[in-house]
Design brief:
By secondary structure, the protein is an alpha/beta fold. It has twelve helices and seven strands. The two termini are 31 Å apart.
Protein backbone atom coordinates (compact mmCIF):
# COMPACT_ATOMS: atom_id res chain seq x y z
CA UNK A 1 0.00 0.00 0.00
CA UNK A 2 1.24 3.47 -0.87
CA UNK A 3 2.36 5.90 1.83
CA UNK A 4 -0.21 8.66 1.43
CA UNK A 5 0.66 12.35 1.19
CA UNK A 6 -2.16 14.55 2.45
CA UNK A 7 -0.71 17.75 0.95
CA UNK A 8 -0.57 16.24 -2.55
CA UNK A 9 -4.07 14.83 -2.18
CA UNK A 10 -5.52 18.16 -1.06
CA UNK A 11 -4.26 20.05 -4.13
CA UNK A 12 -7.67 19.20 -5.59
CA UNK A 13 -9.71 19.33 -2.39
CA UNK A 14 -12.85 20.84 -3.89
CA UNK A 15 -13.09 18.32 -6.72
CA UNK A 16 -12.31 15.36 -4.46
CA UNK A 17 -14.89 16.45 -1.87
CA UNK A 18 -17.81 16.94 -4.27
CA UNK A 19 -18.59 13.20 -4.63
CA UNK A 20 -18.70 12.93 -0.82
CA UNK A 21 -21.20 15.80 -0.72
CA UNK A 22 -23.32 14.15 -3.42
CA UNK A 23 -23.30 10.85 -1.54
CA UNK A 24 -24.21 12.42 1.81
CA UNK A 25 -27.10 14.28 0.19
CA UNK A 26 -28.50 10.92 -0.89
CA UNK A 27 -28.87 9.85 2.76
CA UNK A 28 -29.47 13.26 4.36
CA UNK A 29 -33.07 12.49 5.29
CA UNK A 30 -32.12 9.95 7.95
CA UNK A 31 -31.25 10.69 11.59
CA UNK A 32 -28.22 8.54 12.50
CA UNK A 33 -26.71 8.39 15.97
CA UNK A 34 -23.31 6.97 15.07
CA UNK A 35 -21.37 7.09 11.80
CA UNK A 36 -18.04 5.72 10.65
CA UNK A 37 -16.21 7.29 7.70
CA UNK A 38 -13.96 4.61 6.20
CA UNK A 39 -10.93 5.96 4.36
CA UNK A 40 -11.49 9.47 5.69
CA UNK A 41 -8.15 10.70 4.30
CA UNK A 42 -7.41 14.28 5.44
CA UNK A 43 -10.88 14.58 6.97
CA UNK A 44 -12.76 16.48 4.27
CA UNK A 45 -15.44 13.79 3.91
CA UNK A 46 -15.81 13.47 7.69
CA UNK A 47 -16.36 17.21 7.91
CA UNK A 48 -19.10 16.95 5.26
CA UNK A 49 -20.81 14.27 7.34
CA UNK A 50 -20.66 16.46 10.44
CA UNK A 51 -22.30 19.36 8.61
CA UNK A 52 -25.22 17.19 7.54
CA UNK A 53 -25.48 15.18 10.77
CA UNK A 54 -24.39 17.59 13.53
CA UNK A 55 -25.93 15.52 16.34
CA UNK A 56 -24.35 12.20 15.37
CA UNK A 57 -21.19 10.71 16.84
CA UNK A 58 -18.84 10.47 13.86
CA UNK A 59 -15.42 8.87 13.66
CA UNK A 60 -13.14 9.00 10.62
CA UNK A 61 -10.74 6.10 10.11
CA UNK A 62 -7.83 5.62 7.74
CA UNK A 63 -4.81 3.31 7.67
CA UNK A 64 -2.50 6.24 6.78
CA UNK A 65 -0.98 7.97 9.80
CA UNK A 66 -0.13 10.97 7.59
CA UNK A 67 -3.77 11.37 6.60
CA UNK A 68 -5.03 10.97 10.17
CA UNK A 69 -2.51 13.51 11.49
CA UNK A 70 -3.63 16.02 8.85
CA UNK A 71 -7.31 15.33 9.56
CA UNK A 72 -6.90 15.76 13.32
CA UNK A 73 -4.97 19.01 12.86
CA UNK A 74 -7.48 20.45 10.37
CA UNK A 75 -10.64 19.38 12.21
CA UNK A 76 -9.71 19.23 15.93
CA UNK A 77 -13.39 19.01 16.93
CA UNK A 78 -13.83 15.69 15.07
CA UNK A 79 -12.65 12.20 16.03
CA UNK A 80 -10.14 10.28 13.91
CA UNK A 81 -8.43 6.91 14.32
CA UNK A 82 -5.76 4.97 12.46
CA UNK A 83 -7.56 1.76 11.56
CA UNK A 84 -7.95 -0.60 8.61
CA UNK A 85 -11.09 -1.74 6.81
CA UNK A 86 -10.37 -5.30 7.93
CA UNK A 87 -10.47 -4.20 11.56
CA UNK A 88 -13.90 -2.64 11.02
CA UNK A 89 -15.21 -5.78 9.34
CA UNK A 90 -14.22 -7.95 12.29
CA UNK A 91 -15.00 -5.51 15.09
CA UNK A 92 -18.04 -5.88 17.36
CA UNK A 93 -19.15 -2.28 16.90
CA UNK A 94 -22.26 -1.47 14.87
CA UNK A 95 -23.20 1.76 13.09
CA UNK A 96 -26.21 3.62 11.75
CA UNK A 97 -24.16 4.79 8.75
CA UNK A 98 -21.09 3.19 7.21
CA UNK A 99 -19.72 5.76 4.78
CA UNK A 100 -16.82 5.40 2.38
CA UNK A 101 -15.80 7.91 -0.29
CA UNK A 102 -13.09 6.83 -2.77
CA UNK A 103 -11.43 4.28 -0.49
CA UNK A 104 -12.61 0.74 -1.17
CA UNK A 105 -10.91 0.59 -4.58
CA UNK A 106 -7.67 0.16 -2.59
CA UNK A 107 -9.11 -2.81 -0.67
CA UNK A 108 -9.17 -6.21 -2.43
CA UNK A 109 -11.96 -8.75 -2.17
CA UNK A 110 -15.12 -6.68 -2.56
CA UNK A 111 -17.34 -9.77 -2.72
CA UNK A 112 -16.24 -10.55 0.84
CA UNK A 113 -15.65 -7.03 2.20
CA UNK A 114 -19.01 -5.48 1.31
CA UNK A 115 -21.13 -8.17 3.07
CA UNK A 116 -18.85 -7.98 6.13
CA UNK A 117 -19.29 -4.21 6.32
CA UNK A 118 -23.03 -4.55 5.79
CA UNK A 119 -23.16 -6.86 8.82
CA UNK A 120 -21.77 -4.03 10.95
CA UNK A 121 -24.92 -1.95 10.35
CA UNK A 122 -27.64 -1.53 12.93
CA UNK A 123 -31.19 -2.36 11.87
CA UNK A 124 -32.28 0.26 9.29
CA UNK A 125 -28.66 1.37 9.05
CA UNK A 126 -27.27 2.61 5.73
CA UNK A 127 -24.08 1.77 3.88
CA UNK A 128 -23.12 4.60 1.51
CA UNK A 129 -20.15 4.07 -0.81
CA UNK A 130 -18.46 5.83 -3.72
CA UNK A 131 -15.83 4.02 -5.79
CA UNK A 132 -13.87 5.47 -8.73
CA UNK A 133 -14.40 3.36 -11.86
CA UNK A 134 -12.38 5.44 -14.30
CA UNK A 135 -10.18 2.88 -16.03
CA UNK A 136 -11.51 3.83 -19.48
CA UNK A 137 -10.47 7.47 -19.18
CA UNK A 138 -7.56 8.08 -21.61
CA UNK A 139 -5.18 9.20 -18.85
CA UNK A 140 -5.69 5.97 -16.92
CA UNK A 141 -5.20 3.90 -20.06
CA UNK A 142 -1.94 5.78 -20.65
CA UNK A 143 -0.78 5.10 -17.11
CA UNK A 144 -1.57 1.39 -17.40
CA UNK A 145 0.24 1.10 -20.73
CA UNK A 146 3.36 2.96 -19.58
CA UNK A 147 3.80 1.31 -16.17
CA UNK A 148 3.61 -2.07 -17.90
CA UNK A 149 6.53 -1.25 -20.19
CA UNK A 150 9.43 -3.64 -19.63
CA UNK A 151 11.83 -0.87 -18.67
CA UNK A 152 9.98 -0.09 -15.43
CA UNK A 153 9.85 -3.63 -14.00
CA UNK A 154 7.20 -2.83 -11.41
CA UNK A 155 6.00 -5.56 -9.08
CA UNK A 156 2.80 -7.15 -10.35
CA UNK A 157 1.17 -6.34 -7.00
CA UNK A 158 1.29 -2.62 -7.88
CA UNK A 159 -0.78 -3.26 -10.99
CA UNK A 160 -3.34 -5.19 -8.97
CA UNK A 161 -4.18 -2.19 -6.77
CA UNK A 162 -7.31 -0.17 -7.55
CA UNK A 163 -9.09 -3.38 -8.62
CA UNK A 164 -12.86 -2.93 -8.75
CA UNK A 165 -15.82 -4.91 -10.01
CA UNK A 166 -18.28 -3.73 -12.65
CA UNK A 167 -21.68 -2.23 -11.87
CA UNK A 168 -23.58 -5.46 -12.54
CA UNK A 169 -21.38 -7.32 -10.06
CA UNK A 170 -21.96 -4.71 -7.35
CA UNK A 171 -25.69 -4.95 -8.10
CA UNK A 172 -25.61 -8.71 -7.49
CA UNK A 173 -23.70 -8.29 -4.21
CA UNK A 174 -26.16 -5.70 -2.91
CA UNK A 175 -29.26 -7.60 -4.05
CA UNK A 176 -28.04 -10.62 -2.07
CA UNK A 177 -27.92 -8.47 1.08
CA UNK A 178 -31.07 -6.35 0.89
CA UNK A 179 -34.03 -5.37 -1.27
CA UNK A 180 -33.53 -1.72 -0.34
CA UNK A 181 -30.56 -0.41 -2.29
CA UNK A 182 -29.68 2.08 -5.01
CA UNK A 183 -26.73 2.02 -7.39
CA UNK A 184 -25.76 4.70 -9.91
CA UNK A 185 -22.86 6.33 -11.73
CA UNK A 186 -21.81 9.93 -12.24
CA UNK A 187 -19.18 11.31 -14.61
CA UNK A 188 -17.63 14.53 -13.30
CA UNK A 189 -16.19 16.98 -15.82
CA UNK A 190 -13.29 18.51 -13.92
CA UNK A 191 -11.89 21.65 -15.54
CA UNK A 192 -8.14 21.78 -15.04
CA UNK A 193 -5.73 24.45 -16.25
CA UNK A 194 -3.25 22.14 -17.98
CA UNK A 195 -1.99 18.63 -18.68
CA UNK A 196 0.49 19.05 -15.85
CA UNK A 197 -2.38 19.77 -13.45
CA UNK A 198 -4.10 16.57 -14.55
CA UNK A 199 -0.93 14.59 -13.90
CA UNK A 200 -0.59 16.31 -10.51
CA UNK A 201 -4.06 14.94 -9.70
CA UNK A 202 -3.06 11.31 -10.25
CA UNK A 203 0.31 11.79 -8.52
CA UNK A 204 -1.70 11.91 -5.30
CA UNK A 205 -3.65 8.71 -6.02
CA UNK A 206 -3.27 6.33 -8.95
CA UNK A 207 0.38 7.10 -9.69
CA UNK A 208 1.46 7.21 -6.06
CA UNK A 209 2.47 3.54 -5.62
CA UNK A 210 4.60 3.67 -8.77
CA UNK A 211 6.28 6.95 -7.86
CA UNK A 212 7.18 5.63 -4.42
CA UNK A 213 8.72 2.49 -5.95
CA UNK A 214 11.22 4.63 -7.92
CA UNK A 215 14.03 6.98 -7.07
CA UNK A 216 13.49 10.69 -7.67
CA UNK A 217 15.04 10.73 -11.16
CA UNK A 218 13.16 7.64 -12.32
CA UNK A 219 9.88 8.95 -10.91
CA UNK A 220 10.25 12.23 -12.80
CA UNK A 221 11.01 10.31 -15.99
CA UNK A 222 7.81 8.29 -15.53
CA UNK A 223 5.78 11.44 -14.87
CA UNK A 224 7.22 13.17 -17.93
CA UNK A 225 6.44 10.20 -20.18
CA UNK A 226 2.84 10.10 -18.98
CA UNK A 227 2.43 13.86 -19.42
CA UNK A 228 3.84 13.73 -22.95
CA UNK A 229 1.47 10.93 -23.95
CA UNK A 230 -1.50 12.71 -22.36
CA UNK A 231 -0.68 15.91 -24.26
CA UNK A 232 -1.12 14.00 -27.53
CA UNK A 233 -4.67 12.97 -26.62
CA UNK A 234 -6.22 15.75 -24.54
CA UNK A 235 -7.22 18.90 -26.40
CA UNK A 236 -7.62 22.31 -24.83
CA UNK A 237 -11.13 23.73 -24.62
CA UNK A 238 -11.93 27.14 -26.07
CA UNK A 239 -11.05 28.78 -22.73
CA UNK A 240 -7.68 26.99 -22.66
CA UNK A 241 -8.61 24.46 -19.96
CA UNK A 242 -8.45 20.67 -20.04
CA UNK A 243 -11.48 18.49 -19.26
CA UNK A 244 -10.57 15.59 -16.98
CA UNK A 245 -13.56 13.26 -16.97
CA UNK A 246 -13.91 11.16 -13.84
CA UNK A 247 -16.44 8.33 -13.65
CA UNK A 248 -17.57 7.23 -10.19
CA UNK A 249 -19.92 4.48 -9.00
CA UNK A 250 -22.15 5.10 -5.98
CA UNK A 251 -24.39 2.85 -3.96
CA UNK A 252 -26.49 2.97 -0.82
CA UNK A 253 -27.91 -0.09 0.93
CA UNK A 254 -30.24 -0.24 3.94
CA UNK A 255 -30.20 -3.15 6.35
Amino acid sequence: MAEWNSEQYLKFKSQRTQPAIDLVRKISAINPQNIIDIGCGPGNSTNVLKKYFPNAHIVGIDNSENMIEKAAATYPDLEFKTMSVDEICHDNANYDVIFSNACLQWVPGHREIIPLLFDRLNENGVMAVQIPVNTQEPLFKIIKEIVNEDKWVFLSSLNEQNATLNGDEYFDILSSLTDNFDIWETVYYHNLPSINAMVEWVKGTRLLPYIQALNKTEAQSLIDEIAESAAEIYNKQENGEIIFRFRRLFFTAIR
